[in-house]
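Reopening this one. Same input as before:
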Amino acid sequence: MVDTVINKSSHSMKAGGNTFANSFRGKSFRRATGGGWFSYEMKALPDQPLDLSCTYWGSAHGIVFDILIDGIKIATQKLEKNRPDEFVDVSYAIPTDLSRDKQSLRVQFQARPDGVTAMVLYFSFPYGRTRCSRPFSFDSAAQAQALADALLS
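Same output, byte for byte:
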């Protein structure tokens, strides 16, 4: 996969309400709270089946939020310590009618009025990976474990 760093200009990042990017030990994520949202414009393959793959922290619990494509809800994600102490990848099928005749799609993460989104670490379509702020990578298993340990504390 080809890594692409997200920034506000290259992917038309937009946000509304309570949303923020944060960094923990040099690793970035984006999150929305209290009805806030954030979105990115992503290149699409017209009329092709697409999956959106997102990575979250598996120890998150009590979190419910929506994922929209061009303003249409495709999923409600619930996180309840699905995979404690590890990262979890979740895929969402994007209906072909949402990509029909389109060169790009807007991916939006929407917090509930009384809730938060997960810490969205990165997400991708099948032909490339997009990160939610700065690059997020590990040089070793020890670095990945150090981040996991830090997020638990």
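So the earlier flakiness isn't reproducible anymore. For the record, DSSP finds two helices and ten strands in the chain.
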